[in-house]
Specification:
The complex is a heterodimer of chains A (about 170) and B (about 280).
Chain A: H1 2-31, E1 35-38, E2 42-46, E3 55-60, E4 64-71, E5 74-79, E6 82-87, E7 91-92, H2 114-121, H3 132-140, H4 146-157, H5 161-168
Chain B: H1 2-24, H2 29-38, H3 44-65, H4 71-85, E1 96-100, E2 107-110, E3 114-118, H5 119-123, H6 128-143, H7 146-151, H8 173-193, H9 197-213, H10 220-229, H11 234-242, H12 246-259, H13 271-277
Parallel strand pairs in B: 1-3
Antiparallel strand pairs in B: 2-3
Helix pairs in contact in B: 3-8, 4-6, 6-9, 6-10, 9-12, 10-12
The chains are: A alpha+beta (about 170), B mainly alpha (about 280).
């Protein structure tokens, strides 16, 4: 009795389970559309996947987009009520991150001792990579030049975003 | 009988799930997979590891060639480079640009945002658009993480990705050796083996789009390649050895200009500003 009951119920259960699975997976995929964030200062939302099509809107850094389609390096996206195409060069799945730097605010002046300077500058990543001894050895062998790199970083870091914006006009 | 029914049921369910996934997916699956690979989620730890790693590689690039000490030129290069970088998808990086004191014609990039161009390369250029083209090419190597992906540099200890990722978070001797070996590998890629050919082509294509986003002439790299292609001997020895043939690169750039509809009318070359700064 029990055995017969099992065999009559199983096909119905399979169908019901399949239906539930279909609904769940369908719903999940519909809602799992990829979310993209504009990373570049500005990004062109074009009407088609090329730059000769009409410009629909200029997006700005941090704008949240829903990816609808991907083709040839272009994403078809929904930006609020507007749909269009944006190039992958300008977007990523990450929310916009703060700028990272190795140089801490209290890093000593560049004119002080090389070992002390290198130690402070790499303090944020002290546990990673090469030690001061490793770096000193590479410096002495002429295989690496941390002092010049630090100077370059300081010069490059001294340029403000306003100066860059002015240059780009 | 019960066993057969169970197998059929499970098969039925599996097919249904597959069908649901296929029907509900807005883009085709190959595109979605590629899109996912292109835009994989990264953590702050990943970026920090990339910068730490790239800084070591950058110190080796300067160790090999030395920096060209010219404040005006270095500032100009950094203004141009940072302006271009602002149009990429890596705003979290502090990009640093330097000129190398050598007459060879080449440019180099290290993960984390370190970009170098040789004095010889700059001296063989006509205008700012050409300089922008070469810098944009190197920027793409960084933004697309060509070395980072090849060597598996990641900061997350929970990462299941093979490579040195979990090792560099520690301070053990094993971790330091792995880190040092990875830096050696990156150095070898830059100076001996070269990037993978597909990465070079991608850097040309996306670099062209990048300069176009700042309204520079999209044929700038083509003009530059045609010019240095004819220079024989040591100045172009390494660039020819480490990159695909110029004809192939030029063809690829022409194709993206056509595919993406890049216009030349009204675009910039900025020769006067270039001449005033070099």
């Amino acid at each position: 009795m029990c055995h017969r009951s099992d065999s009559s119920v199983r096909p119905v259960s399979s169908f019901a389970l399949s239906l539930i699975a279909f609904i769940l997976v369908f719903a999940y995929n519909l809602h799992a559309a990829e979310i993209l964030y504009v990373q570049s200062a500005k990004a062109k939302l074009m009407s088609d996947k090329n730059f000769k099509s009409d410009l629909k809107e200029t997006l700005k850094r941090g704008d949240r987009l829903e990816a609808l389609e991907n083709s040839g390096g272009w994403y078809k996206v929904s930006a609020g009520t507007t749909k269009g195409w944006v190039h992958r060069l300008s977007v990523s799945t990450n929310p916009v991150m703060e700028k990272l730097t190795l140089i801490s605010a209290d890093a000593p002046d560049i004119s002080r001792g090389a070992r002390k300077r290198a130690s402070a500058i790499t303090s944020a990543a002290a546990a990673r990579g090469l030690s001061d001894t490793d770096r000193k050895r590479l410096n002495e062998q002429g295989r690496a030049d941390y002092r010049s790199l630090e100077k370059l970083e300081k010069d490059a870091g001294g340029i403000s975003e306003n100066e860059v914006e002015e240059f780009a006009k | 009988m019960a066993s057969v029914g169970g197998k059929v049921g499970r098969f039925y369910i599996a097919v249904t799930i597959f069908a649901a996934a296929a029907f509900a997916t807005p883009a085709d699956s190959a595109d979605r997979r590629r899109a996912h690979q292109e835009t994989q989620y990264i953590t702050t730890d990943d970026v920090q590891a990339e910068v730490d790693f790239g800084r070591e590689v950058a110190a080796r690039i300067i160790g090999k060639y030395s920096l060209y000490e010219n404040k005006k030129l270095t500032r100009y290069l950094n203004l141009l480079g940072k302006a271009l970088a602002g149009n990429t998808n890596r705003p979290e990086l502090n990009f640093t640009f330097g000129v190398l004191d050598t007459d060879i014609i080449n440019a180099f990039s290290a993960p984390g945002g370190y970009i170098f161009i040789t004095k010889g390369a700059i001296n063989s250029m006509e205008d700012e658009a050409e300089l922008a083209g070469v810098i944009a090419h190197e920027l793409i190597h960084v933004t697309e993480k060509h070395i980072v992906k090849e060597l598996g540099i990641k900061g997350s200890e929970s990462s299941a990705v093979a490579g040195i990722g979990r090792l560099i978070g520690g301070a053990t001797d094993v971790a330091k050796v792995a880190f040092s070996q990875a830096v050696d590998k990156a150095e070898n890629i830059l100076f001996n083996r070269g990037y993978q050919q597909k990465d070079e082509i991608e850097a040309d294509r996306l670099g062209t789009l990048l300069i176009y986003s700042m309204n520079y002439n999209p044929t700038s790299l083509i003009g530059y390649f045609k010019k240095i292609k004819g220079i024989e001997g040591e100045p172009t020895g390494s660039i020819k050895k480490l990159h695909p043939p110029f004809d192939e690169r030029i063809k690829s750039i022409f194709s993206i200009i056509a595919e993406d509809g890049l216009k030349q009318d009204g675009t910039l070359r900025k020769k006067e500003r270039f001449d005033a700064n070099i």
